[in-house]
Amino acid sequence: MRFLAKREVEITDEDIFISKVAIQKHFGISSYLVGQLIAQGTLSEPTLLATKVTGWPLSEVKQINFPCTA
């Protein structure tokens, strides 16, 4: 995410991040399986988004091939 002074930033200028909890709910997977995706290299190491909240760029999340159960 970028913060630029004296410039209006459009949403297309920012990376969209998806939290770990949102990924778990969307795909119906456990925290352990998210850890396995990191170990396999499907997801990179998580980025700290806020206190106790981690996430990944939307482009990485789109590469996950689990069927959605939500």
Structure description:
This protein has 70 residues and is of the alpha+beta class. Helices cover 31% and strands 17% of the residues. It contains 3 helices and 3 strands; from the N terminus they run βααββα. The chain has a 3-stranded antiparallel β-sheet. A hairpin with a 2-residue loop joins strand 2 and strand 3. The longest helix has 10 residues, at 31-40. The radius of gyration is 14 Å and the shape is globular.
Could you tell me how far the N terminus lies from the C terminus, measured between alpha carbons in angstroms?
28 Å
Question: How many β-strand runs?
Answer: 3
What coarse outline follows from CA principal-axis ratios?
Answer: globular
The topology string of helices and strands comes to EHHEEH
Main sheet summary: 3 strands, antiparallel
> Could you list the spans in which at least 5 consecutive residues all have pLDDT below 50?
9-13
Strand composition percent: 15-25%
Short description:
This protein is 31% helix and 17% strand. With 70 residues, it is of the alpha+beta class.
Detail the topology: elements first, then pairings.
Blueprint: E1 17-19, H1 20-27, H2 31-40, E2 47-50, E3 53-57, H3 58-61
Antiparallel strand pairs: 1-3, 2-3
Keywords:
single chain; 70 residues; alpha+beta; 3-stranded antiparallel sheet; 3 strands
